Amino acid sequence: MARTDSFVEYTLELLEKVGPLQARAMFGGWGIYAAGRMFGLIAGGQLYLKVDEVTKPDFQAAGCRPFVHDTAARPVEMGYWTPPADAADDAYALLPWARRAVDAANRAALKKAAKKPRAKKRVKPS
User: Fold this and answer.
1) pLDDT tens digit sequence for 83-95
2) Is residue 117 part of a domain?
3) Stated pTM of the model
4) What phi, psi does 72 have (nearest 5°)?
């Protein structure tokens, strides 16, 4: 694994109750993975958790902020939001938010798999 910084290590400790995790360096930040699925993002010293149409309202209601990527054309809101401020440094308060993010990542993977066309079986000529 690539060398991590102290914030990444601290975040992995906070999230250890989620289960076995991996952090992978990416584009100047870090992806946080559970069971091979990215559910968290660390950018600019801030943790963001994956949201979808099911969980985004919860994050919005809790006053969380989206990760916004500045492109040449315009800022783009990504599918990752900060956890609530009161959960940012508390492993027990963060756990339900992290579980929502893992669930969102799992739903996204199922949705992606459903969209993939199935390979056609080749029939050998007799």
Assistant:
1) 999 998 999 999 9
2) no
3) 0.84
4) -60, -35
